[in-house]
Design brief:
76% helix, mainly alpha
Length: 49
């Protein structure tokens, strides 16, 4: 996930905290809309939230 954070910081001009918030928001959105993908989301992005 650190690679994605760095990409968001570089390409979107986000701070580290902003990039983490974006990823957390996307994780929550995908799991909310597609609960059957929760395991895959946690595998890709980590299950810390």
């Amino acid at each position: 996930m650190q690679e994605l954070i760095e990409k968001l910081k570089t390409e979107a001009g986000l701070t580290d905290e902003q990039a983490r918030q974006v990823i957390d928001t996307i994780k929550k959105f995908v799991v909310e809309k597609f609960p059957m993908l929760e395991g895959a989301v946690h595998n890709v992005f980590g299950g810390d939230n």
